[in-house]
Amino acid sequence: MKPKVAFICVHNSCRSQIAEALGRLYGDDTFESYSAGTEVKPEINQDSVRIIKDLYSVDMNENQKSKLLNDIPPVDIVVKMGCNVVCPYLPGKVTEDWGLEDPTGMDDAEFIKIIRLIEEKVLDLRERIKENKIKL
């Protein structure tokens, strides 16, 4: 059975949504991707939706929405995106903090920089899961 990974941040509208989309794109053979937060927004950050669609041909508006922590199933791996305030708590066998800056309100170049960092980290996570380097 594939481990379940939750990408979490406070609003579940930008970085965690990007990570969920890229997790589905790159990690679907290795893990199940979810994202959630302690608060929800009426819609996913539309800059991230537009840029992810441009870069990866993935439409986050089709399959994703802002969710609360209790809207997702129990998970094995919790990835905190970087909160700068109190990060949400979600139980899991393994917790990581990726410490990423929130690009909300920044220009496209900054968004793309954060998206590429998330992509690198998702690919690294996939490899670590495949190689059993994460003890579940």
Automatic annotation (TrEMBL):
SUPFAM superfamilies: Phosphotyrosine protein phosphatases I. It is an enzyme of class 1 (oxidoreductase). Gene3D superfamilies: 3.40.50.2300. One of its GO terms (molecular function) is arsenate reductase (glutaredoxin) activity. Residues 3-128 form the Phosphotyrosine protein phosphatase I domain. GO terms for biological process: response to arsenic-containing substance. Its EC number is 1.20.4.1. InterPro entries: Ptyr_pPase (IPR023485), Ptyr_pPase_sf (IPR036196). The keyword Oxidoreductase applies. Keywords: Arsenical resistance, Oxidoreductase. This is Protein-tyrosine-phosphatase. The lineage of its organism: Bacteria, Bacillati, Bacillota, Clostridia, Eubacteriales.
